[in-house]
Amino acid sequence: MRRKWALVLCAALTAMSLAGCGGKTGETNAPSAESSAGKTESTPEGTQEAQAPSGDVMTIEFFQQKGEEGPQKGYQAIIDKFNAANPDIRIEMNTVPDAGTVLTSRISSGDIPVIFSDYPTQQQFRQKVANGYVQDLSGQDFLKNVNESSLEMTKQEDGGYYALPYSRNYMGVFYNMDIFEENSLEIPETWDDFVKLCDTVKAAGITPVGLFGKDPGRVGHTFQCTTVAWAPNGVETIGKAAQGEAKLEGDPEFVSAFDKMSVLLSYANEDALALSDTACWEKFVNGEYAMCVTGSYARGTLQASNPDIRLGVFPLPNDTKETTHVLSGIDAAICISAKASDEEKAAAYKFLAFLAEPENAQLFCNSDGAPSCINGVENDDEGISPMTDMINAGQTHDWMASTINNNVITDLYNVVQGFWADKDVDAVLKNMDASIAVTSAE
Fold it and tell me: What percent of the chain has pLDDT over 70?
């Protein structure tokens, strides 16, 4: 009797299984949204399984690399609006830790997200283009909405455009507007003015500048900022040194730049070398420092830490306003996989066109706070105008990774961190030459 009931039960389960296989595509064995993320045309069945039960909705992964809260909120607001207006397409944002490494790994394994953000001025991106991983966007109407100077920064060696530039980043001097007003301080436009400003702030019993040097990477950001500000040809000189065509030791621009850095450090918090970025930012928003040299990536954290603080930012000045340049690159840029199917590309083009509409780009700018690459978008933050004016005028220089091997740059960060400790200009330039010689030969 037990055996008979077992056979009946087995037959019933088999019938149910066959009935399930005959259902609509996507209703059985469909992966979750999380597990289906990243499917490309190399696994077409994954794309079909990611569709809604009706089979009419195409789910597209948007892999983006900004880990900060501001840009994620901005993207999601646009995605929600797009999905509501396009019921046949569903964009799903995917943000992971160490996103650059993860993206490189996925591309190497053939698992390329249909839409992804990247940094089109960097060497690593040019290699992706050369290897045929990124779709050429040249001729797409939505590129007409991009600020011309920002678009030209992304032009590749073949003259094509492979990304939609969306926002700009920058390094500068953030300042507490209340402290400036209470002490009748004005934004300095020259190095001498900056030094006088620091003297005035110090005399008022306030630490003029907050710096953080615990992490060599953050020291490196400040180093890149000061190099662009004080050594107009500095990035190119490092590039030549990496090719064995130049030396930094004795170079007048770098000697002057590190002399200025010594002065900057003298006005900074005494624990700069041991302080983390977040600890420094907290002290800054609490009024312990009048200024803080940092990047646009910090703005959201600063504002969240003290919503009442009135923040301004200005370029770290050189000897004259005319010779001052801002370290600024393309911070967010959106790309399409060249390996995606035609249907996926069509959906991706539609999403990028939606992103490029000024009213949608404004949503992102409102959350991110960084200067937009899209024409017609306005940043209502009065304190950022000294930076945006400089950027719009073209007085900028891109990050070193746009022309120099990243391994060379990373090793220089450690050397410069040593300078923060000993302030020896001759030694740091000699050590930088030695570091470049070793790293560029690897």
Answer: 88
